[in-house]
Amino acid sequence: MMAGFGHTTRKHPRSRDHMGTRSGPDRATLGIIGVICAVVGFLTLGIVFGPVAVVCGWLAMGRRWTGTQSIPALVAVVLGAIDTLLAVIGLITSVGIAAGGMF
């Protein structure tokens, strides 16, 4: 059976709710950007790149913890959190040492 003008072989066409938008970056790209930011954050400016990696990884995971996640997205969230934590600890200890105290 051939589909002509105005006739389709689909019984139920896709609704607009089930079709994703193509305007934003896709999840795989966000996961890779998050991993890159996490690695760069370990080298320099961890207080900036760590949270960026966490946000990119979280968006790449689809803003939920359940279900199937991509490996780069999960790595970005974990490394970004570690990176942020180390940067905050470094800031606290450097301020404490500069003030003349232990903490």
Descriptive report:
The chain is mostly helical and 103 residues long. The chain has one domain (25-98). The chain contains three helices and no strands. α1 (27-43) packs parallel to α3 (71-98).
Q: Which structural class should the secondary elements be placed in?
A: mainly alpha
Low-confidence segments, given as residue ranges, are none
> How widely separated are the two ends?
78 Å
Order of helices and strands: HHH
Outline type: rod-shaped
Number of domains: 1
Note the total helix count: 3
Q: In percent, how helical is the residue content?
A: 55-70%
Number of strands: 0
TL;DR of this structure?
With 103 residues, this protein is an all-alpha fold. Helices cover 58% and strands 0% of the residues.
Layout of helices and strands:
Elements: H1 27-43, H2 46-60, H3 71-98
Helix pairs in contact: 1-2, 1-3, 2-3
Task: Give keywords.
about 100 residues; mainly alpha; 3 helices; rod-shaped
